[in-house]
Every structure is written in structure tokens, then in C-alpha cells.
Amino acid sequence: MGKFSLTALPYEADALEPVISRNTIGFHHGKHLAAYVNNLNALLPDSGLEEASLEEIVCKASGGILNNAGQILNHELYFSQFAPQPTKAEPTGALAEGVKRDFGSFEAFKEEFQKKGASLFGSGWVWLSADKDGKLVITQEANAANPIQKGLTPLLTFDVWEHAYYLDYQNRRPDHLAALWQIIDWNIIEERLKKD
Ligand code: MN
């Protein structure tokens, strides 16, 4: 028991196969994310952050509280962006226009995003975010960092910690990243941009 709880997945554990296996989902969501939730709940009492939202904690805290809260926020954005059968293979509307404006084309965006995910040294996350003027940017964030710490609005993320892909892809991180496009629900990403 504690302030935060493990958010249920919006799909079955095997629904993202073969891109992400049931085994990986079981460890990633059921063990790794669950541990971050339990750790944060154990650290919050007497921290002065008991009443803060998850986003506020990520922007204000340090040390173990920051790391566990960051990983919870990152994984909630990660797991909720997938769909077993996405209705479209690329964004439409304002997000599509922004991608073309800021990266040249959807293909050029995907190439840069994958390259930044593949070249991130160690553990971390690659993000597509919108800045205060609506410009789209790709950033590499180490460990548990989140773009909201830089004043950006996070839209899309690939987790490049080994626990995200090692059971299915071993050392082939680039192959895992290339496969993830098949299960991105662009409607969710577009909704995040609208809320910006
Ligand atoms: Mn992860």
C-alpha cells in the first residue's frame, strides 16, 4: 500500500507479440515498474513531497525519490503509447505537419529517432517532445530523466534500458527500436500534443 500504484496495462500481456513478448512485458511491467512504484512509496514518507503529484516530484526531487518517480512517469508514458493493432502507421493532422516541418519527413524523423536511441550510451530513453513554441525535438535522456525537467512536453518515447529488450533481442537494440514503430498508437501521441 502507498500513494502510488501500478497502472494496469491497456492490453493483454501477450498482445504486443512478436514486437514485445509476454515474457518481456511480464518482467518489465510486473517486476521492474512495480519495483519503482514500491520503492517510491517507501521513500515518500517524511520527504516533504507526500502531497506532490508525480510530475512535481520529477521536477523537484533528487536522489532515490527522483530516480524512482522518473521511472514511473517514463514507463506510464511508454506502456500507454502502444496498441496491438494501431489504426494508422504514421501521424496525421497537426503532429504530421510538425514532423514534416521540423524533421523534413516522417521517414527522416524515424531515422533520427532510432539513431539517437541506438547511440545512447548505457541506460536511458529517447524522446520526441514539443517545446513551448510547439517545435518538435528529439532528446536523449539518461537513466530516469524526463523531458518535463527541461520544460518540454513529452510525446513519444523508446526505453533503451536493456530490461526493455534483452529477453527478446539480446544485444540487438537497433532491431528492437526498428520494430517498435509497428505498435505505436499515433492517436495517443496526437492527444498528448493537443494537451500541450
Ligand atoms: Mn524500462
What does this structure look like?
The protein is mainly alpha-helical and about 200 residues long. It contains 8 helices and 3 strands. Manganese (II) ion binds near residues 28, 159, 161, 163 and 164.
What order do the helices and strands come in, and which of them pair?
Elements: H1 22-43, H2 54-60, H3 63-79, H4 93-103, H5 106-118, E1 124-130, E2 136-142, E3 153-159, H6 166-169, H7 173-180, H8 186-194
Antiparallel strand pairs: 1-2, 1-3
Helix pairs in contact: 1-3, 2-3, 5-7
The structure holds manganese (II) ion (MN).
Overall 3D geometry? globular
What portion of residues is helical? Answer: 40-55%
Count of runs of 4 or more consecutive helical residues: 8
Structural class label: mainly alpha
> What small-molecule ligands were found?
manganese (II) ion
**Widest sheet, order of strands:** 2-1-3
User: How would a crystallographer describe the biggest sheet?
Assistant: 3 strands, antiparallel
Order of helices and strands: HHHHHEEEHHH
Mean pLDDT rating: 97
Q: Compute the separation of the termini in Å.
A: 32 Å
Low-confidence stretches: none
Give structural attributes.
196 residues; binds manganese (II) ion; 46% helix; mainly alpha; single chain
Characterize this entry briefly.
By secondary structure, the protein is mainly alpha-helical.
